[in-house]
Amino acid sequence: xxxxxxxxxxxxxxxxxxxxxxxxxxxxxxxxxxxxxxxxxxxxxxxxxxxxxxxxxxxxxxxxxxxxxxxxxxxxxxxxxxxxxxxxxxxxxxxxxxxxxxxxxxxxxxxxxxxxxxxxxxxxxxxxxxxxxxxxxxxxxxxxxxxxxxxxxxxxxxxxxxxxxxxxxxxxxxxxxxxxxxxxxxxxxxxxxxxxxxxxxxxxxxxxxxxxxxxxxxxxxxxxxxxxxxxxxxxxxxxxxxxx
Amino acid sequence: xxxxxxxxxxxxxxxxxxxxxxxxxxxxxxxxxxxxxxxxxxxxxxxxxxxxxxxxxxxxxxxxxxxxxxxxxxxxxxxxxxxxxxxxxxxxxxxxxxxxxxxxxxxxxxxxxxxxxxxxxxxxxxxxxxxxxxxxxxxxxxxxxxxxxxxxxxxxxx
Lengths: 244, 158
Hints:
The structure holds two protein chains of two kinds. Chain A is mainly α. In chain A, 78% of the residues lie in helices and 0% in strands. Chain A has helices at 3-11, 25-36, 39-42, 44-54, 65-77, 82-121, 126-154, 158-163, 167-195, 199-219, 225-241. In chain A, α6 (82-121) runs parallel beside α9, α9 (167-195) runs parallel beside α11 (225-241) and α10 packs across α11 (225-241). Chain A is elongated and about 75 Å long. The model of chain A has no long low-confidence stretch (mean pLDDT 91). Helix content of chain B is 37%, strand content 27%. In chain B, the strands form two sheets. A seven-stranded mixed β-sheet of chain B has the order 3-2-4-1-5-8-9. Chain B has a two-stranded antiparallel ribbon with strand order 6-7. The mean pLDDT of chain B is 93.
């Protein structure tokens, strides 16, 4: 099997050995091993050092770890001094962690879960759930592939590559989009539970969806889509309770 | 307003710092004191990516930091002083013990020779002795990764 494909498969298991001592470090080392194989013939001493470095402490969002893996492997082949590669790894923990959390845990996952719930409410049943699994994993696998390819292509210049990629733009849009979807989900689900779905609920859903989009855009990232959805749910149930 | 948190964390700027502490404490200035990062533009670019644009990030050397601590204490911003190692924080405390008074150990991870004291704090015995000496010289030191977890006093890390 191609070295990159092996590394990509191993990247999907990156959290398999998560621990407080090295966090994702051992998983990174396991994924780096096939990519570093060719270095053995060129410079066996460097290869040994590179394998050890690749398994040291590391932490970031698992779906974006390929950027750090690819960049550090390329730097090893380019003969960048070891301490500088260690610094690159440390510096990458920070943006890859915060961008990934915002993009996936606080954005894409709530947005897709909202769409799935809407699908179930509207009668799509298990198809909606299958669609969620397919779309989320499709995006996750594609992001893993893109991360590794981009990291390998940019090496020490990975910061500039991230800055000019789709990631910053996607982060700007994902929170308000998730707010919109969850805003639409909340009244639909409440109506579904309480007394079926009618025109009033549809208008309510549209209203809360627009409010969700606007508020999370203006008050983000403090107001996340999840917080907005919880607030909307509480307000709706309160209104229901006092008979509005 | 002033410097509201002094933190030692070898991961430097990351989610716990920006979101965990930054948001509840209303921090709008992060001062990263590290000689190597202060001289490296690509590292600064990466660290800046993790921080919302409304938060100012300053990358300074130890010498610059000791010279400017007084100004940060009175410039109207809520500042966080962040170092990647204990030596840098000890140097800042020595330069300005009133400002660098309470020190938060937020993340010191595994290295050969270090022993686990808390899941996020690994220290050699020598490092622990140095911290004890720092506390004897007037600093108040505790380990706490997030504001929502209870702080652990230095004497309980042994």
